[in-house]
Design a protein that fits this description.
Strand content: under 5%
Number of strands: 0
Number of domains: 1
Number of helices: 2
Shape: rod-shaped
Largest sheet: none
Helix content: over 70%
Structural class: mainly alpha
């Protein structure tokens, strides 16, 4: 369980790092495309009207926003899963502690019974001597 939690935390950390890198690359690509009016498929300058260029930029920005929203949702989901794993780990630890408490309580009860029997024997011996 601990190994799984550690593995998922490492994976989450790596994914968040990748997320940041992808966002940086996306921003760089968007700046290059916008600055040079470059067609991302053909690699050539776009020879269209300004209205078509604006529409293309809007589409790229929409896709970029959608991608960023999806990445954000993914990051939130990973965070939620990490929290759920931590809760499960705490629950597991609590159950172990409860089981330990039960065992200790049973041992204490046994010791108490033994002491009561010993006290009864001592009391009987004292009463016999009187």
């Amino acid at each position: 369980m601990q190994d799984r939690v550690s593995e998922l935390e490492r994976e989450n950390s790596q994914l968040q790092t990748e997320n940041g890198d992808i966002r940086k690359q996306l921003d760089s690509c968007l700046l290059l495309l916008a600055a040079g009016n470059i067609d991302p498929v053909l690699g050539q300058t776009i020879a269209e009207t300004e209205e078509q260029n604006e529409e293309l930029r809007n589409n790229v920005m929409t896709v970029s926003r959608t991608l960023l929203e999806e990445l954000g949702t993914f990051s939130k989901n990973m965070s939620t899963h990490r929290q759920q794993l931590q809760v499960m780990q705490k629950t597991t630890n609590l159950k172990c502690n409860q089981e330990q408490h039960i065992v200790e309580r049973e041992q204490f009860s046994l010791e108490l019974e033994e002491m009561e029997k010993a006290m009864e024997c001592v009391e009987a011996l004292l009463l016999d001597e009187m």
